[in-house]
Amino acid sequence: MALQRGPVVYCLEEVDNGANLAGLRLTKESLITEEFSDNLLGGIVKLIIKGYRVKNSNALYSSEPPELVPQQITAIPYYAWCNRAKGEMRVWVYES
User: Fold this and answer.
1) Cα 78 to Cα 12: distance, rounded to the nearest angstrom
2) Phi, psi (deg, nearest 5) at residue 14
3) What is the pLDDT of residue 57?
4) 71, 51 contact by CB (below 8 A)
5) Rounded to whole angstroms, how far apart are CA atoms 53 and 81?
6) Contacts from 67-74 at CB under 8 Å and sequence distance 24+?
7) Which of 32, 43, 53, 54 has a CA 20 to 30 Å removed from the CA of 65?
8) Which pairing describes strands 94-95 and 32-37: parallel, antiparallel, or unpaired?
């Protein structure tokens, strides 16, 4: 899934959410709140989401579903990415 607020598409950045953004999961029921941040590009609206991260496993293959650990996820407008630090960026997020 992707996140959008009005016409603005949002993305996740490593600087906000840690490494391995592919391990993050959202649900259709995830609570999303808006937060204005005036210290980035003169002010942007961030999305704060109650999501999950897949717990690391050493198993190469498993018939068990992955264990999900709750994590706060921060999304910023796509146009604002790569303005703080180098790192991974992701628009599409896995649905859990």
Assistant:
1) 8
2) -60, -35
3) 66
4) yes
5) 21
6) 68/25, 68/96, 71/17, 71/24, 72/48, 73/12, 73/17, 73/24, 73/26, 73/48, 73/49, 74/12, 74/13, 74/16, 74/17, 74/46, 74/47, 74/48, 74/49
7) 32
8) unpaired
Residue whose tokens read 């303005």: 83
Which pLDDT belongs to residue 64?
82
Measured distance CA(54)–CA(62) in Å, rounded: 14
- pLDDT per residue, tens digit, the chain (96 aa), is 999 999 999 999 999 999 999 999 999 999 999 999 998 889 999 999 999 999 886 677 878 888 999 999 999 999 999 988 899 999 999 998
C-alpha 70/C-alpha 51 separation (Å) is: 6
